[in-house]
């Protein structure tokens, strides 16, 4: 009863489902705060705006970032450089520049490049798949998506049958008790 804020590690992508579930249940009306932006095992940014509903992060850029080349509203792939500059690695993070705080860019995480579905080379970002699945579940009255996983048919081996490559989607839903047999079949 004394809880004033919910601190989360991340609040985008599929993790948004868990945040939404907490908001609808035990944490109704409480603010959610994601204090840090981490990727590839490194602390990359700090959220200086805890009152904002969507987390934004003050990016702590390495010296190799040319701040004058960043544009507000554009998306960028994050590249990390080792301290002595000996090597660089793509973190797989896509960030959107939301603005600037003094000379440092303020970023919003958009998606992870590695979190994409690509059974036939179509490269569907996981974030887009999650939004589409939520819209589809929203078409069933009273239904609520609790959790899901999507795998490419190749991962299932013989259980996926001999048909062309496809996705297998497993969902956990709530609120579907009063569905007819025909409606259950569609689910």
Automatic annotation (TrEMBL):
Q: Which residues cross the membrane?
A: none
Q: Name one GO molecular function term.
A: acid-amino acid ligase activity
Q: Which GO terms describe its cellular component?
A: cytoplasm
Domain GH3 middle, by residue range, is 62-112
The protein here is known as: GH3 domain-containing protein
Q: Which organism is it from?
A: Nipponia nippon (Crested ibis)
């Amino acid at each position: 009863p004394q809880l004033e804020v919910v601190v989360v590690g991340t609040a985008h992508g599929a993790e948004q489902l868990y945040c939404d579930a907490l908001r609808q249940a035990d944490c109704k009306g409480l603010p959610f705060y994601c204090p840090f932006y981490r990727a590839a095992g490194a602390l990359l940014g700090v959220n200086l705006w805890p009152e904002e509903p969507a987390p934004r992060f003050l990016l702590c850029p390495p010296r190799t970032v040319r701040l004058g080349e960043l544009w507000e509203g554009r998306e960028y792939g994050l590249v990390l450089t080792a301290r002595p500059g000996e090597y660089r690695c793509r973190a797989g993070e896509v960030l959107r520049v939301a603005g600037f705080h003094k000379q440092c860019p303020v970023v919003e995480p958009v998606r992870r490049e590695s979190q994409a579905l690509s059974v036939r080379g179509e490269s569907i970002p996981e974030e887009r798949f999650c939004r589409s699945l939520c819209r589809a579940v929203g078409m069933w009255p009273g239904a609520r998506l609790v959790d899901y996983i999507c795998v490419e048919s190749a991962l299932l081996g013989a259980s996926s049958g001999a048909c062309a490559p496809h996705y297998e989607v497993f969902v956990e839903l709530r609120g579907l008790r009063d569905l007819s047999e025909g409606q259950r079949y569609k689910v």
